[in-house]
């Protein structure tokens, strides 16, 4: 016979008390919300995080691009097919590095994780995978040589002429994001606190 003991949310089965554990919880576990009002990350940390992300992506992309050009120069159907595979591999690598990782690591790429900064939404909505990909790859890598200097000028204008305390880059403003100093949050402790209430 199974009896529920009200005092501590445990169950009794054949005179053995069974207390539910965290692994017994069924259903989706929601991730804790990030500190959207956190301290704005310094421009130096952001710049070096950007350089690390570029240092990871560009050498691999250049090798793949060189191999693609070499295969195409040799000609032939098989080499064309292999060159296409190399191009697709570059795109998949970029999607993983600049879209998947920030989405799974709560707004952090490898460079941002090393410098303890993260991207958070300014509109209190969860940031979609596509917005990470647009910000991190399309704007900062693909058209970054033009977009980043323009955004830096916009940031300087907001900071020194408009005297805004929390000025953000132009592409962050357009995508409703900002970069803050990362705070470590233990998910398990947060879930345990919620379940105890």
Automatic annotation (TrEMBL):
Keywords: Cell membrane, Membrane, Transmembrane, Transmembrane helix. The keyword Cell membrane applies. It comes from the Bacteria. Pfam families: RDD. It is found in: Cell membrane. Residues 40-160 form the RDD domain. The keyword Lyase does not apply. GO terms for cellular component: plasma membrane. The chain crosses the membrane at residues 47-67, 83-101, 137-157. It is a multi-pass membrane protein. Its main location: membrane. This is RDD family protein. It comes from Gemella haemolysans ATCC 10379.
């Amino acid at each position: 016979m199974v009896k529920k003991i009200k005092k501590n949310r445990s169950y009794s089965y054949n005179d053995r008390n069974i207390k539910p554990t965290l692994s017994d919880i069924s259903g989706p576990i929601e991730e804790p919300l990030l500190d959207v009002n956190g301290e704005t990350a310094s421009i130096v940390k952001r710049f070096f995080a950007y350089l690390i992300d570029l240092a990871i992506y560009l050498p691999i992309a250049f090798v793949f691009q060189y191999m693609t050009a070499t295969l195409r120069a040799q000609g032939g159907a098989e080499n064309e097919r292999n060159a296409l595979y190399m191009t697709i591999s570059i795109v998949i690598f970029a999607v993983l590095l600049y879209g998947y990782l920030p989405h799974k690591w709560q707004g952090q790429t490898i460079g941002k994780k090393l410098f303890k900064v993260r991207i958070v939404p300014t509109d209190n909505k969860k940031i979609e995978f596509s917005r990470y990909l647009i910000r991190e790859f399309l704007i900062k890598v693909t058209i970054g040589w033009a977009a980043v200097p323009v955004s830096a000028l916009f940031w300087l204008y907001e900071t020194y002429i408009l005297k805004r305390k929390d000025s953000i880059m132009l592409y962050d403003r357009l995508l409703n994001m900002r970069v803050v100093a990362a705070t470590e949050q233990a998910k398990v402790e947060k879930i345990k606190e919620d379940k105890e209430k």
